[in-house]
């Protein structure tokens, strides 16, 4: 009996140690963030850059940032270099502009620079290792905190985030200013997206394996990457920080893929993940990041992902007429619409921006808030019940005292 029970007692400390290690490395790694405040400025800046890389996916975890950076280098080292440079320049510019230090340390002033750097390299017609591209990359990344601060002053009136709107604005400005025939910074030639619905692209010739791969590829396309290995590393990084975010990223990408099939989109666009990345971002944002996670918000997130896919089809056609990419305009517009809805359902609760964190932490915050509200209500009710008793207690000594006084004078 003692020999049988002994391994369980020895295994308990190992399990608790493993659980503590997982909790230490998951979520937003708040303990690491507190430890970083006591380190040198260079080490802090590295932590902020890695958090900025992950904030593209609403994640605030430097270890996840390492995994995503590895995936970017696996896809294309030149793209990864431009993305890290954009994150660095955008973060340093925010420091020089004296933006909120907590927001900078959380990577909120770096993620737009990440996308600006990567997508400027993706849309460049000169291919990889065209070093002159670093000049407009630095300039546009430097403007990211400027545009973010300007948009925040407007969006804060409705307590809304700016999402990737600075990235969309700056990249579209750069592409519109240069174009396909620019002598120094030519862009890829974006043709009007008026694909005919070909009859030969029927359900019979669909590649089921490529459809399954389009889910992680759609997640990778958030960073402009079409490699399933890169998408798999990004999903692993999301799983490390928040399983809920990882789940909604896959659900949103799958919803975008199915919407592309329903709208008879070209199969190559579906396989390459172009129908999944906007829907993945929308599903993550609504499914537990800015709303408290409930089954109602699950359905709301899925609805937003499907709506975002339709928005992707419409905006990509409109933008292609101007020879501009759709970028993440569909995600921004559709998600802002869903964040502005009003509902009397208690289960659909949008959090204030000041307390937004990863979904699991958001649920803990809501439980603590409800517990404190119940405690306050119970204290209020108990104080109301005690008030008549206190009045009686005050009246009894007063009445008995007067009665005693009367007896004495008698």
Automatic annotation (TrEMBL):
One of its GO terms (molecular function) is urea transmembrane transporter activity. Residues 374-386 have a biased composition (Low complexity). Gene3D superfamilies: Ammonium transporter AmtB like domains (1.10.3430.10). This is Urea transporter. It comes from Anabas testudineus. It is found in: Cell membrane. One of its GO terms (cellular component) is plasma membrane. Residues 397-410 have a biased composition (Polar residues). Its main location: membrane. The record marks 328 as: Important for channel permeability. Belongs to the urea transporter family. It is a multi-pass membrane protein. It catalyses: urea(in) = urea(out). The chain crosses the membrane at residues 48-73, 79-97, 104-123, 129-151, 163-185, 205-225, 232-254, 274-292, 299-316, 322-341. Residues 371-410 are annotated as: Disordered. It comes from the Eukaryota. Keywords: Cell membrane, Glycoprotein, Membrane, Transmembrane, Transmembrane helix, Transport.
């Amino acid at each position: 009996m003692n020999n049988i029970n002994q391994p369980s007692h020895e295994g308990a400390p190992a399990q608790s140690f493993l659980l503590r290690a997982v909790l230490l490395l998951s979520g937003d790694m708040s303990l690491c963030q507190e430890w970083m405040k006591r380190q040198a400025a260079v080490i802090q800046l590295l932590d902020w850059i890695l958090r900025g890389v992950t904030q593209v996916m609403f994640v605030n975890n430097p270890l996840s940032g390492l995994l995503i950076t590895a995936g970017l280098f696996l896809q294309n080292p030149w793209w990864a270099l431009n993305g890290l440079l954009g994150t660095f320049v955008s973060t340093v510019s925010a420091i020089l502009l004296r933006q909120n230090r907590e927001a900078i340390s959380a990577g909120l002033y770096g993620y737009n620079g990440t996308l600006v750097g990567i997508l400027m390299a993706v849309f460049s017609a000169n291919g990889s290792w065209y070093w002159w591209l670093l000049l407009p990359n630095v300039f546009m990344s430097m403007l990211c905190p400027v545009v973010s601060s300007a948009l925040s002053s407007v969006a804060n009136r409705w307590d809304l985030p700016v999402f990737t709107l600075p990235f969309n604005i700056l990249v579209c400005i750069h592409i519109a200013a240069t174009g396909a025939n620019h002598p120094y910074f030519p862009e890829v030639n974006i043709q009007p997206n008026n694909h005919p619905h070909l009859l030969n692209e029927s359900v019979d010739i669909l590649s089921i394996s490529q459809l399954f791969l389009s889910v992680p590829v759609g997640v990778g396309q958030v960073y402009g990457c079409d490699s399933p290995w890169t998408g798999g590393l990004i999903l692993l990084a999301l799983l490390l920080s928040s399983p809920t975010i990882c789940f909604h990223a896959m659900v949103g990408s799958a919803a975008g893929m199915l919407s592309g099939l329903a709208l008879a989109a070209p199969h190559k666009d579906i396989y390459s993940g172009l129908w999944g990345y906007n829907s993945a971002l929308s599903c993550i944002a609504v499914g537990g990041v800015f709303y408290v996670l409930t089954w109602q918000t699950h359905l709301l997130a899925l609805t937003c992902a499907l709506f975002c896919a339709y928005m992707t089809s419409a905006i990509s056609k409109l933008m292609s007429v101007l020879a501009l990419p759709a970028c993440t305009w569909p995600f921004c517009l559709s998600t802002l619409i869903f964040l502005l809805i009003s509902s009397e359902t208690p289960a659909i609760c949008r959090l204030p921006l000041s307390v937004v964190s990863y979904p699991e932490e958001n649920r803990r915050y809501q439980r603590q808030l409800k517990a404190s509200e119940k405690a306050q209500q119970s204290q209020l009710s108990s104080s109301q019940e005690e008030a008549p008793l206190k009045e009686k207690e005050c009246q009894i000594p007063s009445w008995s005292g007067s009665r005693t006084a009367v007896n004495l004078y008698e």
